């Protein structure tokens, strides 16, 4: 009786599995083939308390569907126009299937599921796909051409910011069609959108001139600039046809360590705008202020493909200029001692450091009472071992220094730095090793000590 019950249960289970298998559609059992359609199938396992299986299966089916669609690169495409640009090519190849999947529409959706699996089949008629693709491409070309015409019209009215925005709109319209033929027929004949757009943008950028009122300004160390830095923006191909640009976004950037400055501004009706420098983080004697067209504000991440932006608005083509900032240096007295192999030397190393400090921060005076600060540099070079090899000897020298800066009025130490036991090695004799050690110690000063002085409040 017991054996009969087990047999009955097995029979019922087998019948249930057979019935379930019979209910499975044929496309789940075996992938269908249709020469007139693209097909993508996705499957996801169901998990307790997880409703993502439908999305996962659909995304998998979309990827498979897009992989079936062969992408052809037209001879009149942007990819052909810039075929030597590796960055653009790599970006396109890595995102091509994703781009295709994002543009797919009009496909049929079929689903099937049981207790453990969820299946999705997407089917897209090839003729319908080609029709939709051509319609989408034609719309993109017409939108881009309309934006180019609007940009040209804005340029004629001297509305340069609006012109740039229209050109960005044209680039945005064709961003997903890098592989397609971008030729369009106009009243003037056939025009390639990609080529025309690139040439127009380069010509526009070339005619934007950003000019500082002065190329060099003199500042005190921590004081506000008495005369703010003023620039003007003009547009034109020749000096006698220049027109002031209104509303052009400008960005100001210090090339070293930053500071409290006006970072962004827009030009007034006369093409002018002003950067106020309140304080500089670096105390270097000569610094640079870079001034350029603020493409970040104009683009506002509207173009997803950064490689495309880099081509049409390359950094080297963006209008820019430079202003030199010269800082008034403070007076200091240089006190030093340099010990070489136990004896006092003629300060060959210390004089090099003094020269570097003079170039960067201080005017050194020979009268201590006139100085605002006292710079004290102690340097020591010690003989190391003579390493003897077969037919040669290598000499070793150790070098160290300690530098301090103090306020001369109240004797308060405001800066100190120490570099210890830098090794110099050279064959021949100790003098060669000494020179090698001095060079290495100087490199340490340039790389480690000098940058720290930027943060010292003097």
TrEMBL record:
Instruction: Please report a single Pfam family linked to this protein.
Output: LPP20
Query: Which InterPro entries does the entry link to?
Result: LPP20-like_dom
Gene3D superfamilies from the entry? Answer: Acetamidase/Formamidase-like domains (3.10.28.20)
Q: What's in the keyword line of the UniProt record?
A: Lipoprotein, Signal
Q: List the signal peptide residues.
A: 1-21
Protein name per Swiss-Prot or TrEMBL = LPP20 lipoprotein
Query: In what residue span(s) does the Lipoprotein LPP20-like domain sit?
Result: 25-124
Asked if the Swiss-Prot or TrEMBL record annotates the protein with the keyword Signal, the reply is yes
């Amino acid at each position: 009786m017991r054996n009969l019950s087990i047999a009955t249960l097995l029979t019922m289970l087998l019948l249930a599995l057979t019935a379930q298998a019979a209910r499975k559609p044929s496309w789940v059992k075996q992938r269908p083939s249709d020469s007139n359609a693209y097909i993508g199938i996705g499957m996801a396992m169901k998990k307790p308390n997880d409703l993502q299986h439908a999305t996962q299966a659909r995304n998998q089916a979309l990827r498979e569907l897009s992989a079936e669609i062969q992408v052809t690169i037209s001879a009149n495409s942007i990819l052909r126009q810039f075929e030597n640009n590796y960055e653009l090519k790599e970006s396109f190849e890595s995102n091509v299937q994703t781009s295709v999947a994002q543009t797919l529409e009009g496909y049929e959706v079929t689903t099937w599921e049981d207790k453990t699996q969820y299946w999705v089949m997407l089917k897209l008629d090839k003729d319908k796909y080609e029709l939709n693709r051509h319609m989408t491409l034609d719309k993109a070309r017409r939108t881009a051409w309309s934006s180019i015409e609007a940009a040209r019209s804005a340029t004629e009215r001297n509305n340069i910011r609006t012109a740039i925005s229209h050109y960005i709109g044209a680039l945005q319209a064709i961003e997903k069609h890098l592989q397609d033929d971008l030729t369009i027929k106009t009243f003037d004949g056939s025009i390639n959108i990609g080529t025309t757009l690139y040439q127009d943008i380069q010509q526009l950028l070339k005619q934007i001139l950003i000019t500082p009122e002065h190329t060099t300004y003199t500042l005190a160390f921590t004081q506000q600039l008495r005369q703010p830095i003023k620039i003007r923006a003009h547009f034109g191909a020749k000096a006698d046809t220049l027109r002031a640009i209104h509303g052009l976004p400008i960005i100001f950037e210090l090339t070293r360590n930053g500071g409290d400055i006006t970072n962004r501004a827009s030009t007034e009706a006369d093409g002018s705008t002003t950067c106020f420098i309140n304080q500089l983080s670096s105390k270097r004697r000569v610094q640079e202020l870079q001034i350029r067209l603020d493409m970040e504000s104009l683009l506002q991440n509207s173009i997803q493909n950064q490689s495309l932006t880099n081509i049409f608005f390359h950094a080297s083509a963006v209008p820019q200029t430079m202003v030199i900032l010269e800082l008034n240096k403070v007076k200091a007295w240089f006190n030093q001692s340099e010990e070489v192999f136990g004896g006092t030397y003629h300060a060959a190393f210390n004089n090099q450091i003094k020269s570097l400090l003079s170039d960067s921060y201080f005017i050194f005076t020979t009268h201590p009472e006139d100085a605002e600060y006292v710079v004290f540099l102690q340097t020591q070079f010690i003989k190391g071992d003579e390493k003897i090899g077969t037919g040669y000897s290598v000499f070793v020298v150790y070098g160290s220094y300690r530098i301090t800066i103090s306020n001369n009025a109240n004797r308060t130490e405001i800066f100190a730095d120490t570099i210890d036991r830098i090794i110099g090695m050279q064959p021949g004799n100790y003098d060669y090793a000494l020179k090698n050690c001095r060079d290495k110690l100087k490199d340490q000063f340039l790389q480690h000590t000098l940058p720290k002085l930027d943060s010292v409040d003097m």
